[in-house]
Amino acid sequence: METWFLRLVLILAWMTSGTVFAEGTDDRESVVREASPESVLDPRIERRRIREAEIDTENFEAGIYAGLISIEDFGTQPVIGLRFDYHLSEDVFFEAALGRAKGDETSFETLNAGVQLLTDEEREFTYYQASIGYNLLPGEAFLTRNRAFNNSLFLIGGAGMTDFAGDEYFTISAGVGYRLLINDFTAVRVDMKDHIFTHDILGEDKTTHNLEMTAGVSLYF
Amino acid sequence: MRLVVILLACWLPPLLLAAEPESDDAFEREYDAVQVKVSDPYVEVHTGPGRGYPVFHVVERDAPLTILYMRAGWLKVETVRGKSGWVPRTALAATLDGTGETPELDALGHEAFQEGHWHASVLVGELDGATSLGVALGYRFTENLTGELMYSQASGDFSNNNLFDVNVQHQLFPQWRVSPYVALGTGRARIEPRATLVQPENREENYAFGGIGLNVYLARGFVMRGEYRSYVLFTEENDNRNLEEWKLGFSVLF
Q1: Contacts of A17 in chain B (CB under 8 A)
Q2: Is the pLDDT at A25 greater than 70, yes or no?
Q3: In 3D, which of B66, B63, B54, B60 has the Cα closest to residue B42?
Q4: ipTM, 2 decimals?
Q5: Listed residue (A40, A86, A71, A173) closest to B119, CA to CA
Q6: Which of B116, B155, B183, B184 has the CB geometry, 3.0–4.6 Å to B169, for a possible disulfide?
Q7: B46, B55, B97, B152 from A34: Cα distances, Å
């Protein structure tokens, strides 16, 4: 019984592999055909004048992100944000970003119970900035033999404002990020940035480095 | 029986893999695709939108090419064989449209965005010793005339200033790639003195300004912009205050 069944399966397997091979030869044929397209293909294309402006453009990217930001002296806190990008060329893109976090207590406040340097509202940490990005290392990442994703490691730097402790501070940001396109219009991003600004919340001027690490998703349109 | 299962297992994956590309197509978006015919001996199709992505396919002369959309200077195309990939936008020059002519390539922007177009700008500058950051949205009514709304923030050692203004710009030589303009505008400033001990009141003042600027068209739809402004603040005191501001930034045209 079993041998009979096995024979049947083998015959089936042979037939299917046969069709697979047949498809293989089809592929080869198509290559040959494409070499002399005028013989098979009749490029009957619509009789109309085409201007570059009529082609859909997809230069914008919009997304959300979440992560952690280390607000100097005020602890490491969750941060969420929005970003909007314009892709100028394969190398350069521009980004506007808005992020929000909330500063924690300083160690001084924790050690001296009852001391409050800032009100709850003043602890709100908001930054907005405009940056220029450069796709330094674009490439393809392979998941399987037949599945590749376009990706890029980029440098990003810019300027903006940070609203914190009831004041606004001019802020310089610089960082590095990674973008993986899971299909033609969806990107997954990981960004690491340093937001540098000078404040005098603790009495004297101090240049602070606020390191941020985020992951996000964005869509091209 | 176990052998049968093993055999079945061996022969299913290739079938599933063969089915994979079809399921991928289901996720493709709909585009207003345009079709052209290749007129050069061949056009190379890359796997990604960048000069370094490998060429995996070649479309020969007279074969049709469907253009789906354009991103950052690259065209996403589909061949008649169903292969899709990327070609640089300059490859359009190697094709013909239905009328037998090469598709019309757009100019950098100083010709294409003459009128009836919007621009958005981001500018960083210096206003009376304070660092300023501004965003603007403008509309070009005619070849020469542009109206613009701008919001700036200047954060200095003594105060935080918020400025909101409306201005009119006159492009002196709209056909030039490096295009100078003059601007006139008026607005309202909110001045928040920065003090840790005493908390002085915020002030609001009206102002007017005149300025000169320069637009440099760098790439299609992208402009580098520099501007100098001279402000007059109509203060409540007897004297008006004069301020100067330098700005440098970029605009995106759309």
Answers
A1: 11
A2: no
A3: B60
A4: 0.71
A5: A86
A6: B183
A7: 17, 16, 20, 58
In tens, the pLDDT along B184-196 reads: 999 999 988 876 6
A205 shares contact with chain B (CB less than 8 Å):
no
Which domains, and CATH codes, for chain B?
30-105 (2.30.30.40), 117-253 (2.40.160.20)
Instruction: Write down how long chain B is.
Output: 254
pLDDT tens, position by position, B71-88: 988 999 999 888 899 999
Domains of chain A, by residue range, sit at: 2-40, 53-220
CATH of domain A53-220: 2.40.160.20
In chain B, where do the E strands start and end? 34-38, 42-46, 55-60, 64-71, 74-79, 84-88, 95-96, 117-127, 130-140, 145-155, 159-171, 178-193, 203-219, 222-234, 241-253
- pTM exceeds 0.80 for this model: no
Say if the Cβ atoms of B71 and A130 lie within 8 Å: no
Q: Residue A124: which of A77, A87, A83, A85 has the closest Cα?
A: A77
**Number of residues that this document lists for chain A:** 221
- How do residues B218-253 score in pLDDT, each as one tens digit? 877 788 899 999 999 888 777 888 889 999 998 888
Q: Are the Cβ atoms of A138 and B53 closer than 8 angstroms? A: yes
